[in-house]
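quick one before i forget lol
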Amino acid sequence: MLALFLAVCTVSCDGKRESKNQKTVTINNVAPRRDVTGEIIDAHDGCLQFFNGRYYLYGTAYGKTDGMTNNDFRVYSSPDLERWTFEGTLLKERPEAVYYRPYVVFNPNTHKYVLWYNWYLKRSLEDWNGQVGVATSDTPVGPFKIINPDVRVFGAAFRPGDGSLFVDDDGTGYYIFTAIYDGYAVCVARLTPDYLGFTGRASPILAKGGEAPVLFRRGNLYYALAGPLCNFCPEGSEVHVFTSTAPLGPYHERSKINYRSENGALTVPAQETWVARIPTPEGPAFIWMADRWGSCPDGIKGHDFQFWSGPLKFDTNGNILPISNIAQWYIQRVGND
């Protein structure tokens, strides 16, 4: 396991007294996160959301497997980013298959929580016939009911790869994904108002050879992040940044944020999974999240660490500054205790 630089980052509130729903919490990247019972949190390649004053961590539970088995999707909730409660599995009824990358958003039109996920029936990657499923629930913890197990992804009707969700300020939903059949091309597609399918509108191809794409908005700029192919790779993956003034582009590539040193090692040996928007007294903080495959000393995949960056920093031109390998940092979050 590669060592972390023992840097510390603090997001403070300039000495302001904390209100009832504000609390300074510690984010630790060098020890496994645990739930309130002491169990290591097993939630990977998913997302962190903030719904109705509470945080929800969604991810794939790998346990002691090699990752290519009948995995579960799990959700944990927390009032403060420190005390996590296991809320259960998301899909109670589903075919036996390989599942990965669960992403959940709230739809303001239907008042449903919508889950998109990747899955396939074959164990062999050579026979991979990738599919994208969509499910809904009345609550953020489910259970989620599968609405369509094989969504026809616009531009990737055959063998869609990694994807994740984004909801714009006006409530419009988008899916950023890779098209395996087209050289792992990264595209953004607009969803229907219920977030259950596609409108047929999509961006031009942002890049090829991409994996684990995420999309977020800061001010008037849309940021699309993706890395080179990295299937459970312990060395991690670079992060390429693209920006646009519109969610469907055109996008323009900017600099990377997870750099390689002269010896080829990445700043953070991890593969990205999400950029979380965390409310703070000073405004939203954007946290880059990534899985450190093969990092846990006991060798159990479900115990692999997840790296949460300090709040991303931006220059005056909107470029994301390079991330740092931070062992521990603090943030004053907003939430319900």
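fyi The two ends are 35 Å apart (CA to CA).
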